[in-house]
């Protein structure tokens, strides 16, 4: 959407493209499906952070779909999915006990770069934009609050990633670990 319509970036509040709208609709459906999957498969207790994140995303995206405003902000936030590719590769390598430590090491650094480029940078930009340019009432206030909560979650996840991959000696004791000795979101 951004590739084909880069002019969208000049109007975060009212910019519109059909592909961006469809992307937000599709992503909303994904978040609803994943939420129901977590609930119906009785994973709510271990995945409560995902449920909070999904509830925030669903409510924000539905408000964007209904009002037609801030569509570009949603598209920018969905850049995070690029980073998820490398987080998923990381998880799969850990689950398979990493047959190639060099592959894990390479992905570890790529993952860090992608985290900055596709999670932290868009999130920081949108937070700055909303705090500086968006009215602090109605939908703007709601979306700003959502962004600030997402900021806290992203920074918490980032600190976990850094501790796990770059500073393992700083990891906490065994509290909060599952039967394999690892907590999914930490490792």
UniProtKB/TrEMBL annotation:
It is a multi-pass membrane protein. The gene is Tlcd1. This is TLCD1 protein. Its main location: membrane. Residues 1-170 form the TLC domain. GO terms for cellular component: plasma membrane. The keyword Membrane applies. Keywords: Membrane, Transmembrane, Transmembrane helix. The chain crosses the membrane at residues 72-93, 113-131, 143-162. The keyword Transit peptide does not apply. One of its GO terms (biological process) is plasma membrane organization. InterPro entries: TLC-dom (IPR006634), TLCD (IPR050846). It is found in: Membrane. Pfam families: TRAM_LAG1_CLN8 (PF03798). The lineage of its organism: Eukaryota, Metazoa, Chordata, Craniata, Vertebrata.
